[in-house]
């Protein structure tokens, strides 16, 4: 008995000494960290001081410090950033709430001249009859010649209720004229459009997840439900994300109470958190499709990923961006702040969809994708296979068509924009946006308009032909093929002249879109484009086909596996084979 007590006593002593040793080691390590931090801050401050005092030219001290901080954070990820006091308002507009005093118009600069690019319905510019294509000469008597977009935007923005004078030049008006507008509170909605589309389906276009986005989706869904839709389409294409909590609230509109939607896990345990639905859903039963593309990121991927994992919605489009990182802002002295990536998020199946590995960079500092061999398989609620490390892969993949070179050139050279201005000047009204289409005669008028315009562009084939000449010249073989080369070049030029006819459909699409916006604003853009939207058409078709819809969500047949990474599975098979051999 004594021996037992002695053993325990000796054990306790040993444990105590081990604990003291570990504690001491921890204190030493902690003190070492503090020393390194203090040392490096001292070095940074000393370098800044000496440069500020001794550099040959005057320096902008605030800019110098920001450059240093930006360089320090650049080695982490693109979402961890320092925001000085001078940029706080722009930061809030981008990440928190798009609300400011203004006139409700966007602008662009061309050849040192400022033009109105778009006017938004219901705001001072539209009410004051300002048109896209108008050239702004002055704002409140300030000459705009040579000013950039940011400088002009600052002149347009200001306090609500203040008068702003615009001096405008319009192509079909002989003399410039002045307009006085009263600035209003400009709040760009998160939901830019909602309405009914083919098949009696409700459609909601959500552009961002900023303040009140969930409330706006709720309002849109409530209004659509009054029309007894056969299904709902939530369009998250090119939605770069925003506030995580708003994403959870939106999912809650379609998913039952007390269901886990997303969890975040980071280095600090206090930052770990699981978000679940907290109320009864507004629409738990109607068929649901979510549209995504390669620019759908972050909160968009939480919505699409959780609805896919819970087998509540069919995802249609292209693979999403792959941003599975969570940021939090921290206030700093002098009204500045820093936004830091604090965690990764995980959708209900347990997968993280972060695609780029910022921690393990190449020697040259470049970022790599998560290797296929490191990608893992997860299961949805109904047992469908999904995978981490590569965004949200759609249940139904639709190849995204790229516009032809000629179409890109016409858009890039602003000739589509300019012709829409000409068209609007000649036509007081057009058909409603959904039925508006350019006739063949009107399209030929556009071709005539282009006759003396410069919209030069280089096709992919031309680039290859030029490369062939370069390589053949290097090999001293060009003289042997010059005749064939010149003949092929002539044929390409002849074919290129036919591009306006060959790519008529897509050119008409962007032209109709721009023209419709001159009469029906942003709403017109959406409704005119519906007839060309392949992903939207597939969404309608899928929800109309009850058998296919059920097969997808149950994971039957080819729908059992979603976005299987080939290399990862090959690597897994190789490992399994080795295990079997053992």
Automatic annotation (TrEMBL):
<dbReference type="GO" id="GO:0007165">
    <property type="term" value="P:signal transduction"/>
</dbReference>
<dbReference type="GO" id="GO:0008236">
    <property type="term" value="F:serine-type peptidase activity"/>
</dbReference>
<feature type="domain" description="PDZ">
    <location>
        <begin position="92"/>
        <end position="171"/>
    </location>
</feature>
<dbReference type="GO" id="GO:0006508">
    <property type="term" value="P:proteolysis"/>
</dbReference>
<keyword id="KW-0378">Hydrolase</keyword>
<dbReference type="InterPro" id="IPR004447">
    <property type="entry name" value="Peptidase_S41A"/>
</dbReference>
<dbReference type="GO" id="GO:0030288">
    <property type="term" value="C:outer membrane-bounded periplasmic space"/>
</dbReference>
<protein>
    <submittedName>
        <fullName>C-terminal processing peptidase-3. Serine peptidase. MEROPS family S41A</fullName>
    </submittedName>
</protein>
<dbReference type="InterPro" id="IPR001478">
    <property type="entry name" value="PDZ"/>
</dbReference>
<dbReference type="InterPro" id="IPR036034">
    <property type="entry name" value="PDZ_sf"/>
</dbReference>
<dbReference type="Pfam" id="PF03572">
    <property type="entry name" value="Peptidase_S41"/>
</dbReference>
<dbReference type="InterPro" id="IPR029045">
    <property type="entry name" value="ClpP/crotonase-like_dom_sf"/>
</dbReference>
<dbReference type="Pfam" id="PF00595">
    <property type="entry name" value="PDZ"/>
</dbReference>
<keyword id="KW-0645">Protease</keyword>
<comment type="similarity">
    <text>Belongs to the peptidase S41A family.</text>
</comment>
<keyword id="KW-0720">Serine protease</keyword>
<dbReference type="GO" id="GO:0004175">
    <property type="term" value="F:endopeptidase activity"/>
</dbReference>
<dbReference type="InterPro" id="IPR005151">
    <property type="entry name" value="Tail-specific_protease"/>
</dbReference>
């Amino acid at each position: 008995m004594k021996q037992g007590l002695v053993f325990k006593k000796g054990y306790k002593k040993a444990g105590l000494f081990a604990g003291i040793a570990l504690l001491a080691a921890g204190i030493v390590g902690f003190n070492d960290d503090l020393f390194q931090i203090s040392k490096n801050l001292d070095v940074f401050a000393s370098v800044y001081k000496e440069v500020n005092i001794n550099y040959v030219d005057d320096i902008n001290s605030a800019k110098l410090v920001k450059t240093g901080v930006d360089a320090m954070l650049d080695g982490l990820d693109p979402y961890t950033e320092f925001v000085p006091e001078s940029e706080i308002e722009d930061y809030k507009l981008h990440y928190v709430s798009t609300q400011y005093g203004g006139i409700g118009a966007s602008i662009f600069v061309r050849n040192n001249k400022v033009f109105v690019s778009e006017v938004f319905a219901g705001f001072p510019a539209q009410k004051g009859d300002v048109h896209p294509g108008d050239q702004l000469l002055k704002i409140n008597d300030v000459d705009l010649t040579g000013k950039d977009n940011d400088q002009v935007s600052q002149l347009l923005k200001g306090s609500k209720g203040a008068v702003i004078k615009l001096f405008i030049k319009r192509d079909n008006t002989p003399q410039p004229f002045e307009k006085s507008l009263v600035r209003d509170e400009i709040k760009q909605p998160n939901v830019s459009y909602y309405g009914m589309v083919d098949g009696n389906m409700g459609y909601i276009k959500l552009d961002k997840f900023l303040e009140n986005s969930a409330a706006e989706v709720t309002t849109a869904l409530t209004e659509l439900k009054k029309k007894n839709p056969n299904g709902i389409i939530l369009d998250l294409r090119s939605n770069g994300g925003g506030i995580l909590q708003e994403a959870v609230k939106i999912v809650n509109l379609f998913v039952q109470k007390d269901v886990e939607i997303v969890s975040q896990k980071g280095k600090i345990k206090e930052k770990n958190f699981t978000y679940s639905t907290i109320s009864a859903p507004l629409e738990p039963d109607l068929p649901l499709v979510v549209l995504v593309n390669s620019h759908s990121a972050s909160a968009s991927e939480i919505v699409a990923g959780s609805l896919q994992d819970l087998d509540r919605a069919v995802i249609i489009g292209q693979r999403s961006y792959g941003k599975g990182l969570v940021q939090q802002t921290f206030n700093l002295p002098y009204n500045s702040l820093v936004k830091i990536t604090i965690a990764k998020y995980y959708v209900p199946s347990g997968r993280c969809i972060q695609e780029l590995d910022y921690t393990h960079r190449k020697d040259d500092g470049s970022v790599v994708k998560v290797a296929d061999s490191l990608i893992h398989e997860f299961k949805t609620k109904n047992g469908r296979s999904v995978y981490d490390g590569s965004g949200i892969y759609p249940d139904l993949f639709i190849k995204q068509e790229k516009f032809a070179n000629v179409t890109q050139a016409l858009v890039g050279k602003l000739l589509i924009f300019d012709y829409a201005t000409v068209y609007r000047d000649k036509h007081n009204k057009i058909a409603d946006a959904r039925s508006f289409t350019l006739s063949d005669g009107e399209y030929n008028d556009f071709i005539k308009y282009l006759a003396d315009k410069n919209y030069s562009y280089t096709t992919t084939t031309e680039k290859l032909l030029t490369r062939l000449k370069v390589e053949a010249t290097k090999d001293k073989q060009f003289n042997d093929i010059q005749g064939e080369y010149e003949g092929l070049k002539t044929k390409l030029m002849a074919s290129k002249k036919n591009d306006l006819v060959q790519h008529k459909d897509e050119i008409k699409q962007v032209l109709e879109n721009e023209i419709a916006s001159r009469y029906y604003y942003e709403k017109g853009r959406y409704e005119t484009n519906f007839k060309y939207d392949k992903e939207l058409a597939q969404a309608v078709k899928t929800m109309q086909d009850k058998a296919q819809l059920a097969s997808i969500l149950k994971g039957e047949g080819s729908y059992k596996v979603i976005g299987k990474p080939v290399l990862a599975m090959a690597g897994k098979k190789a490992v399994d084979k080795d295990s079997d051999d053992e």
